[in-house]
Amino acid sequence: MAVNLFYFLVFPGLLFVSVTGALLSWFDRKISARVQFRQGPPLLQPFYDFFKLLLVKETILPRKGSPMIFLLAPVFAVFGATMAGVFILLPLFNISTGFRGDLLVIFYLLTIPSFSYITGALASGNPLAAVGSSREMKLILSYELTFLLVIAGIIMKCGQKFDLYSIIQTQQAGSPFIGSISGVLLFIVALFCVQAKLAFVPFDMPEAEAEITGGIFIEFSGATYALIKLSKYIMLFILPSLLVALFMSGFMLNGIHILWAVLKVIGIVLLITLIKNTNPRIKIKQAMSFFMVWMNLIAVIALVLIAFGY
Predict the structure, then answer these.
(1) In whole angstroms, what is the distance from residue 150 CA to residue 102 CA?
(2) Whole-angstrom Cα distance, residue 298 to residue 135?
(3) Cα–Cα dist 234/4, whole Å
(4) φ, ψ for residue 216 (rounded to 5)?
(5) Nearest-5° Cα angle at 20, 219 to 165
(6) What is d(CA 87, CA 97) in angstroms, rounded to the nearest whole number?
(7) Of 78, 105, 191, which is closest to residue 143 (Cα–Cα)?
(8) 30 and 41 in contact (C-beta within 8 Å)?
(9) Which residue among 5, 19, 122, 293 has its CA within the 20 to 30 Å range from the CA of 96?
């Protein structure tokens, strides 16, 4: 019991994913600033932001709606992100537990933060939050099917194995899945799914500050918004880590391979950041067409190539 609590609360759980995610958030903001010819924030700025919201800013409850659900939604978002992080990182760090890292369990855990945002926004009673929730729901319906196709492709390449341990070991015993044509196609599709899961440009329509002034998060403040930020930090770390596990042989934590493991995660975050800073926000209809038509098509082509051994 104590070991499981340590895994959840310390390493590779809440404390570890929070700190690492905050550092990656700084990296994202620093690269964004450099692309825009700005200086960017100091290294500890994400921590300043979080603790200022948590300890200094007032938490304002909406007059209309359901205060209890509104307050619990960010807690569930952090819980879902942390649980997903634990189940992704345990296999990556080669820590053996009773749970074998089932991809479908991880898939469902990764949806908890998005559904928590939707629930909290609807509980606020704000019409702009309702618009953001509507966009978030449509976005989820768009990219989750595509992400399932990516998972199906990985399972096919791994010989019908569902657990993350086996997927990583299969690649380490042979070659990374990204080294094949089908692997490259699936990686491209998965990268855009991660972009949408993080609600980064061009898929930030649920927030859309210029249109609906924060949208889905418009009513969150103080400690509740601090938890939202924390869940975002965690997702920024665990989603690239999942791509490393699925396509790049995971982590090998000995010698120079430790540096290579870090560079894999940073490289994916860099790609996500560059996509964010070189594309405009698109309409929700365009996002749905992008995933349901083009990304699904690429994923299906990859599945066909896998069936033929490519």
Answers:
(1) 15
(2) 24
(3) 19
(4) -60, -20
(5) 110
(6) 10
(7) 191
(8) yes
(9) 19
Alpha carbons 192 and 220: distance in angstroms, whole number: 27
- Residues in CB range of 13: below 8 A, 6 or more apart: 6, 7, 82, 85, 86
Q: Which two tokens stand for residue 53?
A: 């919201």
Tokens of 266: 């940073």
Q: How many residues does the chain have?
A: 310
Residue 206: its H or E element: none
Residue 30 is encoded by which pair of tokens?
């620093």
Helices 164-173 & 222-247 angle (0-180, nearest 10) = 40
pLDDT tens track for 296-306: 999 999 999 99
pLDDT tens-digit series, residues 79-136: 999 999 999 999 999 888 766 668 989 999 999 999 999 999 999 888 888 888 999 9
279's tokens: 């594309």
Neighbours of 203 (CB within 10 A): 27
Q: Measured between alpha carbons, how far is residue 273 from residues 35, 80, 146, 187, 201 in Å?
A: 10, 24, 21, 16, 9
The whole-number pLDDT of residue 98 equals 64
The stretches of 100-199 forming alpha helices (DSSP H) are: 103-124, 127-157, 164-173, 181-197
Q: 3-state DSSP call for residue 257?
A: helix
Written as one letter, the residue type at 45 is: Q
Q: Cβ-count burial of 104 within 10 angstroms (0-12 exposed, 13-18 middle, 19+ buried)?
A: exposed
pLDDT block averages, 10 residues each, the chain of length 310: 84 94 97 92 95 91 87 96 94 80 89 94 88 91 94 93 90 92 96 95 82 79 94 97 95 87 96 93 92 96 93
Which pair of tokens denotes residue 69? 């659900």
Structural contact between residues 237 and 19, judged by C-beta atoms closer than 8 angstroms? no
Tell me which residue has tokens 């938490």.
59
